[in-house]
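Study the following:
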Amino acid sequence: MSFQRKDYAESKAQKKLTPSQAKVKIGAFCAYQERCQQEVRDKLYTYGLHSDDVEELISFLITEGFLNEERFAQAFVGGKFRIKKWGRNKILRELKLRNISPNCIKAGMKEIDPEDYWITLKVVFEKKWESVKDKDDFIKRQKVMKYLLARGFEMDLVQDVLRES
């Protein structure tokens, strides 16, 4: 006995929207949470819109206040730092990946208080230090340092926190 296979190509094909339908849908998309222009642009292209319509809708969203890259950068930096405990390097890399302008990145990075940053680094360090089960102190330090660098913390700060331990 054989079963008929489902054709996934048909189910994934999204119907094309008119610009007015897309305006309503993308407005809700932007109202739900802060978005960057690249996210919105990508989403609009999935609706089957042409580049002229996409750029027109993006300019509409900006003028109406639905889309603001500086506000997005501030929310992104604050969230990734406070909730995910990311370091500056990783946050900066992610913002650049999203094509955020350098001025907006600079404004967003001001969300990180240097004192809170140091405290967060120490907390992340201590948590990782306790979780690494290695007898050799040198190897343990290397593993923790590699972890902290991968989280986006700067090398000089990581070395400082390792020296303090």
